[in-house]
Design a protein that fits this description.
The structure holds 2 protein chains of 2 kinds. Chain A contains 15 helices and 11 strands. By secondary structure, chain A is α/β, with parallel strands linked by helices. Chain A has an 11-stranded mixed beta sheet, with helices on both faces. In chain A, helix 8 links the parallel strand 7 and strand 8. In chain A, helix 2 packs antiparallel against helix 3, helix 7 packs antiparallel against helix 15 and helix 9 crosses helix 11. The longest helix of chain A is centred in the last third of the chain and has 23 residues. The radius of gyration of chain A is 21 Å and the shape is globular. Chain B is α+β, with helices and mostly antiparallel strands. Chain B has 3 domains: about 280 residues, no CATH class; about 110 residues, no CATH class; about 55 residues, Arc Repressor Mutant, subunit A, CATH 1.10.10. Chain B is built from 16 helices and 16 strands. In chain B, strands 1, 2, 6, 7, 10, 11, 12, 13 and 14 form a 9-stranded mixed beta sheet that branches. A 3-stranded antiparallel beta sheet of chain B has the order 5-4-15, with no helix packed on it. Chain B is elongated, with a radius of gyration of 30 Å. Chain B starts with 12 loop residues before the first strand and ends with a helix. The chains are: A alpha/beta, B alpha+beta. Chain A: Keywords: ATP-binding, Ligase, Nucleotide-binding, Protein biosynthesis, Transferase. Chain A: Pfam families: Amidase. Chain A: This is Glutamyl-tRNA(Gln) amidotransferase subunit A.
């Protein structure tokens, strides 16, 4: 048995290869572990877990030999560091969780492992998922496998997941998306990433950033893989009160590529001042491709869009300021060294000052401010009202017969690491401008690679679907993927 | 049900140097929900377990953990609300109250600020002498308790026990309707009584499962009435909150000293600062803990991990239809059905176990007279238990059926009251069926008039001088009765003896 070129494998083709006994899960795992080991320059993997991977692969082979194994049986995956994995460091890329190894397994990873998936390692990310460039990680930034003369960001916060999938270090990876953290890095690295409807995937065991916005999702090489992996991640969980008790469809079976008669909306408010021409052109190209595939494309209005980003940057930090209060050095993680006679307040202040990076501290402070007495109504409550209006915008459009909405995923291609170092933080927040609306409204959104910019860097288009209609959304994305025919891969330099 | 009509009691008046002052008191009572599991984690609530043994990952605030509401705790809170004649809110929601403390692992307490589960209700607080205060309940919300910090085990370290973290509490907030320290104590005891009837709170104040924050202010006579009429709090004085009290005795003492402290300041021309105070029972004073300026900003906001709590009216109706009889109703019924006095009915219904015991005493057999039974429970049984190391009624060696048997023997005239006391002692110490003991030990009362007449004749014959005296002074007949009872070993029916003695003496 010989392994095929791993960089051309997908979950779907590996699944067939395993069933045809072209290779074993153990061979596949060894191949990917070797690739991962050789990819240190990308800084995508922060804790390799070869022993777990080998044990899981061995078990997967036994299951495959018995026949009737689940789709993901023997498929090597990477896991974002935000997911708690039993006995394995799970630090949310933060110094404050130094040494933390949970005694429990997140629902998502439990489900993936129950299906026979193989964990190769934990993947880099922005600290506590706060960032759009992976530069806030305590492990240092991920380097995008797409490199044009200099190191580029892989996006954030799921930058490690995006880079690992794009570089072929694993067949798929888990991501999480609070304001675009799956979709923007997917766009920056030429892969597919879907954030399902809020409540589709259990949040239990995922380190919380902003609870009402956080949602996990798969990051894969193509739409079919996203459909396969999403199915394994979804499902009602009695341990998460916000998870929906709905049946999980066979998303892969829904991929027909036939979108004739579907109505695609193009929201005029997403055309922003100063938007790069290339993004504009890609968006127009996407419109044309969907039209050619038989969809009816119409211009629509989502009038409250311009308030989305400010509302998001009130709600998300507010929830984060509370969610991150538990990192106090008392029970787990890192505690600052204290001087003689220093009290509990000193312990909190030093622990949190040393343990949290600048961006996390900024958001905790913003969140604390907007929730404080006298400001609550002006900020937090106002932002909640805006959120309701944004949700209504989408409901109206869907009620008018639109099946999906097409937008760019991000306002630019991957930018250089360090480019934003001296910029106003708001410049970085603008990366989320097309994606946060989806989180605020709780809708499913997917980024599909659709072209390259002048420098040859990948660009993604985002499709936004109706709540709980991931199957239909994936099908539309599948059609777009086929029309775009994006096959470019980064040249291996690492 | 009897119409329990009471007069409102007069408010407590404290005479100051510049005139009279009245007290205005409102309470926030934290009642631990009787539940085997915590409110959001499912961990055990067992009291007295090894430190940190009843702690789940959720209780410890571990990363990625999520709360899930315990439906049983919601039902208990609804039950309590219904017991306090309160409105049940079918839509409520949980909020986070944010503050840092090591015994608050998540850095926030899950509570209900904006939309509590239970709305307005009321409690009738009896105060004796036909007076009672109607205390309005503003709201009851469901929240989680914090853990326990222990600072006195080590000079350089503090310890934290999270067993209590996440245990369900009901916070019962009253309106400022309480007007004296005695009323405050009686109000808490009434809440405790109702919740114990409902089975929603064990009410063990020593173990901290009933605690209160007490808000105290003072005003001039007439001001409270203005407030009551208008709802305008500006007619009332500035209040101070005395935190975390778990003894009705200390609560009364704290209210008294706090009111006097405030009056002294006001009469000195000063102003009351709204603040949180603590009561020091050793020094008999309240001390400032933190003022309004340095109060925590709790940054309440809706907990995004929990969906709003939606309950259905039908579910509430089911709970309502299964509610047990509550103290007021039970007391009224006991008074009506058994002709008990207000006092006796009050004593018997004070604790749910007492009432249950009494009702079992009178429920079986025949001729179990309610008044007699009440008398026996309150005087004989309670007295005996008290002498026996202050035993609880649930530990009584005499079962309700046994006591019922004794009451029945009295009712049938089989034994006299005096014999009954001996019988009770036998049953208490040795056990056994009272009727059988009476038979076996020949304790049956003599009602055979022939035998009694013989005994009377013998006493009369042996005491001619006394007979003469008795004829002058009929009150001395009692002496003959006593002699006859003595002669018959107490077994003669006293009524029959009385009658025969009088007849034979020609009185």
């Amino acid at each position: 048995m010989t392994l095929p070129d791993l960089s051309s494998l997908t979950i779907a083709t590996a699944r067939e290869g395993l069933r045809a006994k072209d290779f074993t899960a153990q061979e596949l795992t060894e191949g990917f572990l070797a690739l991962q080991e050789g990819a240190g320059a990308l800084n995508a993997v922060v804790h390799a877990t070869p022993e777990i991977a080998r044990a899981q692969a061995e078990a997967a082979d036994a299951r495959l030999a018995e026949g009737a194994a689940p789709d993901l049986c023997g498929i090597p995956l990477g896991i974002k560091d935000l997911f708690c994995t039993k006995g394995v460091p799970s630090q949310a890329a933060s110094r404050i969780l130094e040494g933390f190894k949970p005694e429990y397994e997140s629902t998502v990873t439990s489900q993936l492992f129950a299906d026979g998936a193989v964990m190769l390692g934990k993947l880099n990310m922005d600290e506590f998922a706060m960032g759009s460039s992976n530069e806030t990680s305590t492990y240092g930034p991920v380097v995008n496998p797409w490199r044009k003369n200099r190191d580029l960001t892989a996006g954030g916060s799921s930058g490690g997941s995006a880079a690992a999938v794009a570089a072929g270090l694993c067949l798929g990876a888990t991501g999480t998306d609070t304001g675009g953290s799956i979709r923007q890095p997917a766009s920056f690295t030429g892969i597919t990433g879907i954030k399902p409807t809020y409540g589709r995937i259990s949040r239990w065991g995922i380190i919380a950033f902003a609870s009402s916005l956080d949602q996990a999702g798969p990051m894969t090489r193509d739409v079919r893989d996203a459909a396969i992996m999403l199915r394994a991640m979804c499902g009602a969980d009695p341990k998460d009160s916000t998870s929906a008790d709905l049946p999980v469809p066979d998303f892969e079976a829904a991929l027909t590529g036939d979108i004739r008669g579907k109505v695609i909306g193009i929201p005029r408010e997403y055309r922003m001042d100063g938007m790069p021409e290339e993004i504009e052109a890609l968006w127009a190209e996407g419109r044309r491709m969907l039209q050619e595939a038989g969809a009816e494309v119409r211009d629509i209005s989502l009038p409250h869009t311009k308030y989305a980003l400010p509302a998001y940057y009130v709600i998300a930090p507010a929830e984060a300021s509370s969610n991150l209060a538990r990192y106090d050095g008392v029970r787990f993680g890192r505690r600052a060294a204290l001087g003689q006679g220093e009290d509990i307040t000193a312990m909190y202040e030093k622990t949190r000052a040393e343990g949290f990076g600048a961006e996390v501290q900024r958001r905790v402070m913003v969140g604390t401010y907007v929730l404080s007495a006298g400001f609550y109504d002006a900020y937090y409550n106002k932002a909640r009202k805006v959120r309701t209006l944004i949700k209504r915008d989408f409901e109206q459009v869907f009620a008018d017969g639109v099946d999906a909405i097409l937008t760019p995923t991000a306002p630019s291609a991957a930018f250089g690491l360090g480019d934003m170092a001296d910029a106003d933080p708001v410049q970085m927040y603008l990366n989320d401008v097309f994606t946060v609306t989806v989180n605020l409204a709780g809708l499913p959104g997917i980024s599909v690679p659709a072209g390259l910019d002048r420098q040859g860097l990948p660009l993604g288009l985002q499709l936004i679907g109706k709540p709980w209609e991931e199957a239909e959304l994936l099908d539309t994305a599948y059609s777009l993927e086929r029309a775009a025919g994006f096959v470019a891969r980064p040249d291996k330099w690492w | 049900m009897l119409d329990l009509s009471y007069e409102a009691p007069a408010p407590k008046v404290i005479q100051g140097a510049t005139g009279d002052w009245e007290l205005v008191i409102g309470l926030e009572v934290h009642a631990q929900v009787a539940s085997k599991a915590k409110v959001f984690s499912g961990a055990s609530t067992q009291f007295g377990a090894e430190p940190n043994s009843n702690v789940s990952f959720v209780d410890a605030g571990m990363p990625g953990m999520l709360p899930v509401i315990n439906e049983g705790c919601v039902a208990q809170t609804v039950r309590t609300g219904l017991g306090l004649k309160a409105a049940i809110n079918l839509h409520s929601a949980f909020d986070r109250k944010n503050y840092f403390y090591p015994d608050q692992p998540a850095g926030y307490q899950i509570s209900q600020l904006y939309h509590p589960l239970v709305g307005e209700g009321e409690v009738l607080v009896e105060l004796g002498n036909g007076t009672a205060r109607r205390v309005r309940i503003e709201r009851i919300h469901l929240e989680q308790d914090a853990g326990k910090s222990i600072h006195d085990m080590d000079p350089t370290m503090s310890f934290v026990d999270l067993n209590r973290a996440g245990v369900a509490l009901m916070e019962i907030v009253s309106r400022p309707d309480i007007r004296s320290p005695e009323e405050a104590a009686a109000y808490i005891l009434k809440l405790r009584q109702i919740m114990r009837y409902l089975g929603t709170c064990d009410g063990d104040m020593q173990n901290g499962n009933l605690r209160a924050d007490v808000n105290v202010s003072v005003c001039r006579p007439g001001d409270y009435e203005k407030y009551a009429e208008s709802g305008d709090f500006s007619h009332l004085g500035t209040r101070c909150e005395i935190k975390n009290m778990n003894s009705t005795r200390f609560i009364q003492a704290a209210i008294e000293v706090e009111a006097r402290r405030q009056i002294a300041i006001l009469e000195d021309g000063g102003q009351i600062v709204q603040e949180t105070r603590g009561f020091d029972p050793d020094k008999g004073e309240t001390r400032s803990q933190r003022s309004k300026e340095e109060a925590h900003d709790y940054r309440y906001f809706p907990d995004p991990d929990l969906l709003p709590l939606e309950i259905e009216q039908a579910w509430v109706d089911d709970i309502a239809s299964a509610l047990p009889e509550l103290p007021d109703a039970k007391k009224a019924r006991l008074m009506e059905a058994f002709g008990l006095s207000d006092y006796d009915a009050g004593v018997l219904t004070a604790e749910v176990e007492n009432a249950a015991y009494f009702e079992q005493v009178v429920s079986g057999g025949t001729k179990r007279d309610g008044k007699t039974a009440a008398n026996w429970v309150i005087n004989e049984l309670f007295g005996r238990l008290k002498r026996d190391g202050d035993k609880a009624i649930t530990e009584s060696p005499v079962s309700p059926d046994q006591l019922g048997g004794i009451v029945e023997l009295i009712g049938k005239g089989d034994i006299s009251g005096k014999i009954a006391k001996d019988l009770f002692e036998i049953v208490y110490t040795e056990g056994g069926d009272p009727a059988q003991i009476v038979e076996e030990r020949g304790m049956r009362q003599v009602t055979d008039t022939g035998a009694i007449e013989t005994a009377v004749d013998e006493v009369i014959a042996a005491n001619p001088a006394q007979v003469e005296k008795a004829k002058q002074n009929p009150k001395l007949a009692g002496w003959f009765v006593g002699q006859v009872m003595k002669a018959t070993g107490g077994k003669a029916n006293p009524a029959a003896v009385n009658q025969i003695v009088s007849a034979k003496l020609g009185l």
